[in-house]
Amino acid sequence: MHTSRSNCDCKWRRRKEARPAEIIDAALDLFVVKGFNATKLDDVARKAGVSKGTVYLYFESKESLFREVVKQIIVPEVEKAEQKAAEFVGSQSELLKLLMVNWWEVVGKTRLGGIPKLMVSEAANFPELAEFYLDKVVSRARNLVVESIKKGVESGEFKACDPVATARLFLAPVVFAVIWDKSLATYDKEDYDRDEYIRMHANNFFDGLLQTK
Amino acid sequence: MHTSRSNCDCKWRRRKEARPAEIIDAALDLFVVKGFNATKLDDVARKAGVSKGTVYLYFESKESLFREVVKQIIVPEVEKAEQKAAEFVGSQSELLKLLMVNWWEVVGKTRLGGIPKLMVSEAANFPELAEFYLDKVVSRARNLVVESIKKGVESGEFKACDPVATARLFLAPVVFAVIWDKSLATYDKEDYDRDEYIRMHANNFFDGLLQTK
DNA sequence: AATTACTAACTGACCAGTCAGTTATTTAAC
DNA sequence: GTTAAATAACTGACTGGTCAGTTAGTAATT
Asked: pLDDT tens digit string along A93-132?
C-alpha cells in the first residue's frame, strides 16, 4: 500500500485484487486533506494509477467510496486496540497510558489522523456515516477507556468518579490534538512538542485520578 | 440579526445598510453546518431574503463572503474577551474560569461554535484564511490564557510550569467540546452534561495547577 | 426624471457518473 | 508451442446536471 503506481510502468495491467485497496489508499490521502466535496474523483483515479472509469468498477459512487475509506481504514485500528486491552496485564493507569500512546502513534502521527477530522467536517453532510462512525469507532474506543476506569475504581487504584465523564476528559485533549495537527497546526507559527503534550496530559490526569495514600 | 425575512413582506425594499449583515448572518448558518463547498449561494441568498445577484453587490465572491463571515463574527468576541481580562480583578484561577465559562456561553452554546469547526474543516482549502484565523483569533485567545498562567506562577498562586504547554492543555477539552457539539454530537446516542463537563475540567485542572500548601 | 438597490434569467465551467471501444489475459483449439 | 477466439479489466471521451458568477432589465427611492 501507499504506492500510487504499479511496479511495472511499461503499460497498464489487469489487477482486479489490488485495485480497491489502491483506490481507497489514494482517496484517503485526498479526502483527509481536502474534504469530500473538494476532492475530485479524477484526482483520486490519477493518484491510484487508474482511470476514473475503473473507480466505478469497484465503487458505486463517490459517496460509497467515501464510506469505504472510513470503514476500511479505521475499524481495523479499533479492533487492534480492543485486542490489546483484552490481552493486557497490569494496572489500569498503565493500560490507559498504553492505549493513549498507541493511538497517538498509529493514528495521531500518521495520515489516519485525518479520519477524525474528516468525520467532524462531514458529519452533517453524511448523517448515516456519522452514525456508523459513532457506533463502530467512537463508542467502542470510548468504551475501552470507560471499562478501564471502572475497573480502576473498583480495585481502589482510582478515586471514586463518574467513569463516563472521566473518560471524556481523558480522551478530549488527545483527540483534539490529532484534529488540530491535521488542520490548523499546519499553518500555526507556534509549534509545540506533541510527545511532551501527551506525556504532560497523562501525568496531570493520573495525578488527579490516582488514589493518593 | 438572526431574522431571515424583513419585517415588511408586502414587497422588497432597498436596504443598503442592512444587507451585508443579513447576508453574513444567513451565510454563517449554512457554512457552519454544511461547510464551504456544500453551501450554495442561492440558499444563502434565499435565507437572507434577497436574490443571488444582491449577494454579489456586497461581496465579490463566495470565498470573500466566507472570509467576512469568519472575520466579522469571531474577531469581536476575541476583543470582548481581551477587554474582560484587562478589566478583571481577582485571582488568576478565577480569571481563567471566567474566560472559559464566558467562551462556553458565548461560543460553545451558540451557533458561533460552528466557526472553530469550520476552520478546522476548511483550513487546508483556505490557507490564507487559516493564517488569519490563527493570527487574529487563536493566538490572541491563547495568549490571554498564557499570560494569566504566567502571572499566576509569578505570584505563587500556581505551581511552576510551562505556561504555553499548560495553556494548551487547559484549552483543548473546551475547544474540543465545542467542535464535537457542532458535528458528531448531533448524532451521538450517548449524550452528556456540557456544564458538568466544563465544571469538572476546571476542577481537575486547578487541582493539578494550584499551589498546594 | 434620475438614480441605484435589487432581481431573475442567463452563461460557462466544472465534475460525477456513463459507455462504447481497447487491450491484457485466459481458454481452447490445433 | 503457436495461434485464435472469448473474456473481462480498463480507458477516456462524452453527457447532463449543478452552481458560481454576470448582466440586462425592473422597481423603489430621491
From this structure: 999 999 999 999 999 999 999 999 999 999 999 999 999 9
Q: Is A106 exposed, middle or buried (0-12, 13-18, 19+ CB in 10 A)?
A: middle
Contact residues on chain A for B190, CB-CB shorter than 8 A:
139, 142, 164
Mutant choice from B138, B188, B189 vs A, greatest count of A C-beta within 10 A: B188
Burial class (CB in 10 A: 0-12, 13-18, 19+), B84: middle
Q: What 3-state class would DSSP assign to A99?
A: helix
C-alpha cell at B194: 456540557
The owner of cell 485500528 is A77
Say whether residue B192 is in contact with chain A using an 8 A CB cutoff: yes
C1 C1' – A179 CA distance, angstroms? 61
Enter the C-alpha cell of residue A189: 507559527
Q: Do B121 and A120 touch (CB under 8 A)?
A: yes
A12 shares contact with chain B (CB less than 8 Å): no
Q: Where does residue A8 rank: exposed (0-12), middle (13-18), buried (19+ CB within 10 A)? A: exposed
Tell if the CB–CB gap between A190 and B139 is shorter than 8 Å.
yes
A125 and B176 within 8 Å at the Cβ level: the answer is no
Going from N- to C-terminal start, the domains of chain A cover 1-59, 69-209
Multiple choice CATH, A1-59, 1.10.10.60, 3.50.30.50, 3.40.109.10, 1.10.760.10? 1.10.10.60
Fold of domain B69-209? Tetracycline Repressor; domain 2 (1.10.357)
Q: Which nucleotide has its C1' atom closest to residue B53's CA?
A: C7
pLDDT digits (tens, 9 = 90+) for B23-50: 999 999 999 999 999 999 999 999 999 9
Q: Which nucleotide lies at the shortest CA–C1' distance from A55?
A: D10
Query: B207 at the A interface (CB within 8 A)?
Result: yes
Which pLDDT band holds residue A209 (cuts at 50, 70, 90)? confident
Take residue A126 and report the three cell numbers written for it.
453524511
